[in-house]
Specification:
12 helices; 7-stranded mixed β-sheet; elongated; Rossmann fold; binds S-adenosylmethionine; 44% helix; alpha/beta; 290 residues; single chain
Length: 290
């Protein structure tokens, strides 16, 4: 049976099934994982709830830091990803698995966990404030939440058309057509990804009752990023779970002749190894349930 869209993205479409791209994203993700876990201030016997666990980046990272009495609850809306985490856990009794949405953590009792973690999950939720209320509910007094979210609205406002971070180029006309595919396909579903910023995260945490709310925000505009090294692999990548791969969008948007022109430009660009330009914003938040 085909995996759901979340599993398909995390397991293949995020990295285009390319070992080189996977190695690159693993390296970046390890930094984010460590930021979330450092912010959580884990103690050896903590019960950690990882909301939207995916393949277990944060949950298994937490497990490595806990002692023999610690426990990690992996929760997600994707049954396929919970199965994947169950396989990875390989019978470790410090793990349990709960099918639940961030906005409705039914199945997790009130005041039952020491730490809630989550990474790049709220960005897909249309009810982010409700998720904070649930995090507060399941945490025991003195418990902590530690999370990371990309603030996609920032790049959308600053660089709405710079699809691959190339800056101005001779294929801008083609890239504009590809960008339009993403605009039309995703306009509705993508709204939760751009309908908030770092100040909203703080507001929702405070409104839910958290104290000692701390936010670390980082914004970058046109800073040198990784070069495009393999255009064919990049075409197999989807920028998020809700949208087509770049190759799929190109097939929809461009004629055969246009595709050839784009391929020639991007292959030459990859051979040069010039850095791309990154425009991104990210936020880490941690807070305490009094
Ligand atoms: C970008 S992945 C992040 C996975 C994982 N947290 C990580 O750090 O690698 C987003 C995850 O959120 C899950 N997800 C999407 N909507 C959700 C929701 N409303 N509540 C809980 N999880 C959700 C998806 O199934 C997916 O596993």
């Amino acid at each position: 049976m085909a995996e759901d869209k979340w599993a398909q993205w995390l397991l293949t479409r995020r990295d285009g099934n390319s070992a080189a791209l996977r190695a690159r994203s693993d390296r970046d993700l390890a930094v984010v994982r460590d930021g979330v876990l450092d912010g959580a201030g884990l103690l050896p016997e903590d019960v950690v709830l990882d909301v939207g666990c995916g393949t277990g980046l944060i949950g298994f990272g937490a497990l490595d830091r806990l002692g023999p009495q610690g426990h990690v609850i992996f929760s997600d809306v994707s049954r396929d990803l919970l199965d994947e985490c169950r396989r990875t856990a390989g019978g470790d009794e410090r793990c349990s698995f709960v099918l639940a949405a961030a906005e409705d953590l039914t199945g997790i009792p009130d005041a039952s966990v020491d730490v809630v973690t989550t990474r790049s999950v709220l960005i897909y939720s249309a009810r982010k404030a409700a998720a904070f209320v649930e995090f507060f509910r399941v945490l025991r007094p003195g418990g902590r939440v530690s999370l990371f979210e990309p603030i996609n609205r920032f790049a959308r406002q600053r660089r709405p058309d710079d699809l691959f971070g190339l800056g101005a180029s001779s294929v801008d006309d083609l890239l504009a057509k590809v960008r339009d595919v993403y605009r039309s396909v995703t306009a509705e579903g993508e709204r939760p990804m751009i309908d908030f910023d770092e100040r909203d995260l703080v507001e929702w945490a405070v409104a839910a009752g958290f104290e000692a709310v701390e936010l670390d925000y980082r914004a970058q505009v046109d800073v040198p990023g990784e070069p495009i090294v393999d255009w064919e692999a990049l075409k197999q990548v989807a920028p998020n779970p809700l949208v087509p791969t770049y190759g799929e969008a190109i097939a929809t948007a461009l004629t055969g002749a246009e595709r050839k022109r784009l391929d020639a430009h991007m292959t030459a660009r990859a051979a040069l190894g010039t850095p791309t330009r990154r425009t991104v914003a990210i936020a880490f938040l941690r807070a305490l349930r009094p």
